[in-house]
Amino acid sequence: MRALVIRKRDAQTREKVFVGDWPAPAGPVGNQVKIQTLYSGITNGTERNQLLKGNYAPADEDLPKATGYQTVGRVIETGPEATTLQVGDVVFVGAHTGGHLAFIVAPEDDLLIRLPDSVDRQEAALFGMGGVALNTCGNAELTIGESALIVGAGCVGQIAAQMAALLGTRVTLCDIDDHRLEAARQIGAAEELLNVAGAGWTEKIADASFDAVIDFAGVPGMEDQLIRAARGQGRVLFIAGRDKVRYTFNLGQQRVITIKQNSHFDTDDLVNLCRLVGRGLIRLGPLIQDVVAAEDAKRIYDTLRDRPNALLGTVFRW
After folding, report:
1. If you compute the radius of gyration of the chain from its CA atoms, what whole number of angstroms results?
2. What is the pLDDT of residues 173-232, one digit of tens each?
3. What is the pLDDT of residue 108?
4. Is the CB of residue 26 less than 8 Å from the CB of residue 105?
5. Residue 240 has pLDDT above 70, yes or no
6. Contact 126/315 with Cβ under 8 angstroms?
7. Lower CB count within 10 Å: N or C terminus of the chain?
8. CATH classification of 3-126+284-317, choosing from 3.90.180.10, 3.30.930.10, 3.40.50.920, 1.10.10.10?
């Protein structure tokens, strides 16, 4: 079976490549369904973390391994106990059992949803990152008229900016890459866009300016700066993968700051994302920069590992 597989490259880094002989899944049995993949999307932060042996990465002894959680495919077979899905349904699969695989077998009540005709299939390949964005905005408890600083204009940050704007929040989106900020400018959800490269953060981000500070960038050592940007009674959310979080305790205590972590997403997030995308209220199309054949994956993953800012949304055709 065709698959995209992460494997060792050297002592510190990995590579992810296309293979044609990965073991095919068994089944379906019970309430499982077998899905033929149409498109799969890269989860930029998580998959780069795995390439660099970060805190989300599988251990060396578990390699090679197929990883990923953004798949769009068509149901081609159902188990005897499946009742909600049928052959021909197009679904999004967000479970880690999915990976970038030509065929997936998963329970029909797993982290997946049926896609309506109103949702573009390629755009749905970014629903995993979109689900994280919606889950994060809910965890941030954003409300009308509040101000939110979203740090990092990758796919998750861009979708979170759109969701926050829909909730009535005044959104400031910052990054160090003009290309990503230009994509955000075209989408138009953020009320302010800031390039914080170099001394930009010090010059443009005033202390105690935001009700919520949501970090999708995960830059080590920035914790104190993120907390300083929050107002009294504000919230700071650490989303991106950090091995450890270190901050000056009194920064949060004196302002009664709430510090949260966010993890993943659930089926409700996917259902709501699907509804909003289908109605044109959240736009994923402008975030898709590369649509390439799965066979061309190594070039894309080498770029993700070595020059991550060169990518935005990437979708593989199967």
Report:
1. 20
2. 999 999 999 999 999 999 999 999 999 999 999 999 999 999 999 888 999 999 999 999
3. 95
4. yes
5. no
6. yes
7. N
8. 3.90.180.10
Q: Are 75 and 34 in contact (CB under 8 A)?
A: yes
How far apart CA 153 and CA 176 sit, in angstroms, is 9
- DSSP 8-state symbol, 103: E
Q: Rounded distance, CA 299 to CA 296, Å?
A: 6
> Could you tell me the pTM of the whole model?
0.95
Question: What does the alpha-carbon distance between residue 80 and residue 58 come to, in Å, rounded to a whole number?
Answer: 34
Across the chain, what does the average pLDDT equal? 95
Q: Is the pLDDT of residue 74 over 80?
A: yes
Residues 6+ positions from 258 with CB-CB distance below 8 Å:
233, 234, 235, 236
The pLDDT tens digits of the residues spanning 39-58 come to 999 999 999 999 999 888 89
Q: CA-to-CA distance for 171 and 191, rounded, in angstroms? A: 5
Q: Give the separation between CA 96 and CA 118, rounded to whole angstroms.
A: 26
- Quick one: average pLDDT of 76-81? 98
- Tell me which CATH homologous superfamily contains domain 130-261: NAD(P)-binding Rossmann-like Domain (3.40.50.720)
